[in-house]
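Field reference: sequence -> structure
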Amino acid sequence: MASARRVWTIAVGRLDDRVIIVTGGAAGIGRAYITGFVAEGAKVVVADIDGEGAATAAAEVVAGGGEALAVTVDVSDVGQTEAMAKATLDRFGRIDGLVNNAAIAIRVKHVNAPVEELPVEEWDRVIAVNLRGPFLCCRAVLPHMKSRGYGKIINIASGTFFKGTPFISNYVASKGGVIGLTRTLAREAGKSGITVNCIAPGLTASETEEMPASHYEARVPDRAIKRVEVPEDLVGAAIFFMSKDSDFMTGQTIIIDGGVAIN
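Structure field:
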């Protein structure tokens, strides 16, 4: 499988001493965000329903000379998201950024079916994590961000929303809702010095994906950039949204899919 892996190294320290929570940060794309943020000088909170995985990822950051906290969290649970915010404040004293990356992806024990055949409980399960989750995480950190007059929130959507990908209506609807949440929250929080932006990845291959290489390679012909998308392709945009370079940019969605959405 073709890929373009990159190694992120500290160059300008655009995120020096910033405290950033990444949900779903234990592996895959979330882990790539963690790596990129730490390379730019950030302190990170690895928040994941996989507590053991979060602890391992945080330990790797510390072993490399960075600062990290592992938190076990189910983002669909009010109490657990509030505990995540409290644990971050107890450890670091502030919350500068939040990346709402945790999600039930279309590959995870999903039912691929038309709307009339999709079980209601399957719809509810995906919406609970993919849309309720970002809402609850934002809700948990916003009081602190507003009190400081500063904050950066990145919501993670999906290129499937722009394509209207069939037979995964729950997933597509959840990611469309994330874009809507991003826009309205940007309006609400802007006066408090908080930016809220969104990244919409294309189909991305990572070590957490249990799919054959051909699954990702099949998307390449649709792309303007003719290769498989990997987690590192998303990191630069996340660093930009977390840095001062994007201080006057809010409510926006960047599609990172190698050019699929322009077709």
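Note: The longest strand covers residues 194-201.
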